[in-house]
Write a structure and sequence with these properties.
The structure holds two protein chains of two kinds. By secondary structure, chain A is mainly alpha-helical. In chain A, helix 3 packs across helix 5. The longest helix of chain A is centred in the N-terminal third of the chain and has 35 residues. Chain B has a single domain, classed as MetI-like fold (Orthogonal Bundle). Helices cover about 80% and strands about 0% of the residues of chain B. In chain B, helix 1 packs across helix 4, helix 1 packs antiparallel against helix 6 and helix 4 packs across helix 6. The termini of chain B are far apart. The chains are: A mainly alpha, B mainly alpha. At the A-B interface, helix 3, helix 4, helix 7 and helix 9 of A face helix 2, helix 3, helix 6, helix 7 and helix 8 of B.
Chain lengths: ~230, ~220
């Protein structure tokens, strides 16, 4: 009973809109990656330097974010914060929510990496007269990053794909662009099929690019290739 | 204008939690069944099966869950069947969970040393019996912790069902918020209700992981 006729014409006519949305999606994800990483590094450093005060706060932050849905976090930030007097545009709320979300996962990932750095290295750094923060930045962080880079990459791909959720508050990105086109043309399935393919291409390109970065920066030719 | 947030609203949100729980259970039960098939296909000796499973996993792990739900929702309508949001959400979540669980379990199956399967072969066991009697029972032990961890993911994923119009926890919060406009309070309650479902699972998964890494299985 396939009486449905697929019509992709409307999608191709609005394809520039989708590509523009794709660019915004990439921008949003990279922004959240950057700010989220900073947040994670600060959290990790806080845990080391002021364990008594920072550890419970960072721990609560990580647990709160990891055990609630991103969509609810987005709503809480976009609808909830204005009630407390903080006005954010949809785009700002989206970036903020994705940053806070990615920051929590990155904090947890980074922690496991930092734990893998032998304590002798830290002592050696201190013995050489480096300050604690210098040891953190120059000795621990790079080695931790080497260990956790693949995990951070998969988390980034999840961030990239998860960013489609912010279309729920009409922040501008690819899914929102698809929703727009869909509401004008009623070609829902066709539009979402094309957008899904675009997400797939973007995610795959990023996976390949990040794998290359990993090889070049951390020189790890020895690591077995991921899922073939 | 807007009415006050009352105990009725709170009850509405609390009661909507059961739909989140139900949807999570459906997604896990269906996802686990299909996921086991995916995992077995992924380690099969037949290369077309391996390829099909790998493609399935790759597609679902590299596209947004929201798009998967949209495509199921609109796709089923296309073939001329009316699908309600619950069924669409359930189907989408099952397929997604199957891909992720399939990949997790593939790793567990392949973690069992090859000597085990060889010993089974030497004993004259068929491929089916080797898998059922030797590999899977051992893989199960290491699979429990990551599987429980993924349950947290499933519970959180069900929130996306609200976007295709199924009234579970998140959407009940939206509905109440539209009427009472107390977003901070309402979405905090909603977040809390997710937290009480997810945190025990996270905690349990971490415990199991520790027990495995310390060798007391």
């Amino acid at each position: 009973m396939m009486s449905y006729v697929f019509q992709f014409g409307d999608v191709w006519r609005n394809f520039d809109e989708l590509l523009w949305g794709a660019l915004l999606t990439v921008e949003l994800s990279l922004g959240a990656l950057l700010f989220g990483l900073v947040l994670a590094i600060l959290s990790a450093y806080g845990r080391l330097s002021w364990p008594r005060i920072a550890s419970p706060i960072v721990g609560a932050y990580v647990e709160a974010i990891r055990n609630t849905p991103l969509l609810v976090q987005v709503f809480l930030i976009f609808f909830g914060l204005p009630a407390l007097g903080v006005m954010l545009s949809a785009d700002e709320a989206a970036l903020f929510a994705l940053t806070v979300n990615f920051g929590a996962y990155a904090t947890e990932i980074l922690r496991s990496g930092l734990e893998s750095v032998p304590s002798g290295q830290i002592e050696a750094g201190l013995a050489l007269g480096l300050k604690r923060w210098q040891v953190f930045l120059k000795v621990e962080l790079f080695q931790a990053m080497r260990v956790v880079f693949p995990a951070l990459c998969s988390q980034f791909i999840l961030l990239l794909l998860g960013s489609s959720i912010v279309s729920a508050i009409a922040a501008r990105e690819m899914t929102a662009a698809a929703n727009d086109i869909q509401s004008r043309t009623f070609r829902s399935f066709e539009v979402y099929l094309v957008v899904t393919a675009l997400y797939f291409v973007i995610a795959t390109l990023f996976s390949v690019a990040l794998e290359t970065v990993d090889r070049l920066v951390f020189r790890r030719q020895d690591r077995p290739r991921a899922l073939s | 204008m807007s009415r006050l947030f009352s105990s009725n609203d709170l009850a509405f949100i609390l009661l909507a939690t059961r739909w989140t729980v139900l949807l999570s259970m459906i997604a896990f039960a269906g996802g686990a069944t299909l996921g086991l098939a995916v995992a077995l296909a992924r380690v099969s000796e037949r290369s077309p099966l391996r390829f099909a499973a790998a493609t399935f996993i790759r597609i679902f792990q590299n596209t947004p869950l929201l798009m998967q739900l949209f495509l199921v929702y609109f796709g089923v309508n296309i073939i001329g069947m009316n699908i309600d949001p619950l069924a669409a959400a359930a189907l989408g979540l099952i397929l997604n969970a199957a891909a992720f669980l399939g990949e997790i379990w593939r790793g567990c199956i392949q973690a069992i040393p090859g000597g085990q399967a060889e010993a089974g072969r030497a004993l004259g066991l068929t491929a089916y019996l080797r898998m059922r009697l030797i590999i899977l029972p051992q893989a199960l032990k290491i699979a429990i912790a990551p599987t429980v961890g993924f349950l947290v993911q499933i519970v959180k994923n069900t929130s996306l069902a609200s976007i295709i119009g199924f009234t579970e926890l998140t959407r009940s919060g939206q509905i109440v918020n539209n009427a009472t406009f107390r977003p901070f309070l309402i979405f905090s309650i909603v977040a809390m209700l997710y937290f009480v479902q997810c945190w025990p699972l996270s905690y349990w998964s971490r415990k199991l992981e520790l027990r495995i890494s310390s060798g007391k299985t």
